[in-house]
Amino acid sequence: MNKQEIIGNWNIAKGKIKEQWSDLTDDDLLKIEGKTDQLIGTIQKKYGITKEQAEKDFAKFSKSNLSCDSSEKDSSCCN
Predict the structure, then answer these.
(1) What is the rounded distance in angstroms from the CA atom of residue 46 to the CA atom of residue 76?
(2) N or C: the chain end with fewer CB closer than 10 Å?
(3) Gap between the Cα atoms of 55 and 70, Å rounded
(4) Is 54 exposed, middle or buried (0-12, 13-18, 19+ CB in 10 A)?
(5) How far is it, in rounded angstroms, from Cα 23 to Cα 66?
(6) Spatial distance between the Cα atoms of 58 and 79, rounded to a whole number of angstroms
(7) What average pLDDT does the chain have?
(8) What span, in angstroms and rounded, lies between the C-alpha atoms of 68 and 79?
């Protein structure tokens, strides 16, 4: 999922993100507003990990939770 797609599907993504990183608050998610760089930075700060690790964790999460596969082509995820 690219940056534009996460912004366009932010309401869907927020719930999945909060499940994965429960230390993120609603205020954090409001400030992030779908901006991938801000999300990674916030994960880095909240969890005390390196930027590289936060990027790696987000990429893995994004691939398995935010990407559309062929069975989801008609869902709101891919619109």
Answers:
(1) 30
(2) C
(3) 25
(4) buried
(5) 19
(6) 22
(7) 82
(8) 10
CA 6 – CA 65 distance, rounded (Å)? 11
- Residue 7 pLDDT more than 50? yes
| Integer Cα distance of 55 and 12 in angstroms | 20
pLDDT reported for residue 79: 37
Rounded Cα–Cα distance for residues 39 and 18 (Å): 11
Question: What domains appear along the chain, each with residue ranges and CATH number?
Answer: 3-61 (1.10.1470.10)
Residue 75 has what DSSP assignment? S
Whether 65 contacts 16, CB under 8 Å: yes
Specify the pTM: 0.74
Give every CB contact of residue 62 below 8 A, 6+ residues apart in sequence: 1, 6
Q: Hey, what are 43's tokens?
A: 């994960």
